[in-house]
Amino acid sequence: MAMAKIIPTFLLRLIALGATVSATVVMVTSHDSTTVLNLKFVAKYTNSPTFKYFALANAVASGYGLTTIFLPCKTSLWRLLLVLDLVILCLLNSSISAALAIGYVGKKGNTHAGWLPICGEVPNFCDHVNWALISGFVAAVVYFLLVLYSLHNIVNLLAGGKG
Amino acid sequence: MASEGGEKPEVGSNQVAVKKGKGWVVPLLRVVAFLATLAATIVMAMNKETKTIVVAVIGSTPINATLTAKFQHTPAFVFFVIANAMASFHSLLMLVVECFGNKFDFKGLRLLLIPILDMMIVALVAAGEGGAVFMGELGRHGNSHARWNKICDKFESFCDHGAGAFIASFVGLILLMIINVISVLKLRNQLKTAANYSALP
Questions:
Q1: What is the pLDDT of residues A106-132, one digit of tens each?
Q2: Does A84 lie at the interface with B, CB-CB under 8 angstroms?
Q3: CA distances from B142 to A9, A56, B148 (A)
Q4: Which residue from A minimizes the CA distance to B173?
Q5: Which ipTM value was assigned to this complex?
């Protein structure tokens, strides 16, 4: 019974770790430059505080994933793990939502505020950020499943009996 | 002996695990979370500012342009309003279920739904909050690398109202997280101390 529970949790944590690590790495290595009228414009992830926050949040989540991936299922720290899982979930969610919002402005612009889209000039940067966002989204979904799964381990949700 | 509104049910042989007054902490927090998310929704939904600025002067007649800043212009703010509206509705619903839902229980669905829905709403509010806060930061500071000008120097009241909505939503988010953790831990305690626990509350 314990093995049937421990394998999915370990697998979920592994997938989440992979997703957060890849999101961080892809965002950090996004870089593109374009020359307009003899002026060189460089697009990096550090140009926007949102993308910096996204990279930081995913880095924190991958560090947390590395630390907790080897914990046993019925550990005595399950309360702390539940709270930390929830906090990391909120962090990932807010970072992906913020990066998506800024990415939307970068791709489509915002005519009301007079903000022009930049993806036409730096397509490589946009593609990189795109992949980082996809990875971050996968990480957020997997962390949500993880939280639900650890909740199921605590309070046996489906059977309605003692956990 | 029935538990009389205490924090923990008594350890006894035949217990109905949940009665109406099973503690006042979580319902109180739910009320505050409801008010916070409702305030965030309303403040952002009514966030609108119109300004007439002089665009050009031809001869001696100035040409005015009327610019409006509304929350609908930014998808992040729309999502913020929707997420907070759903969170406030959820808080109200959970409040009603906790106070009056002991009579209706459809095959233990309540035990299943309360933690899951709570987690979903926490995730939703966190996402709405994050997106809107960073869009607000972009409006306040602009982005010189992308040639995006800031708009808060022209629409100060719009930005201030938005900041107030973000603070209310953040308070709501913290409270929702605390409520979630407390209710999950209480649920486990209740399940552990109920002796002949065969039926669901």
A1: 999 888 888 888 888 888 889 999 999
A2: no
A3: 42, 21, 5
A4: A90
A5: 0.87
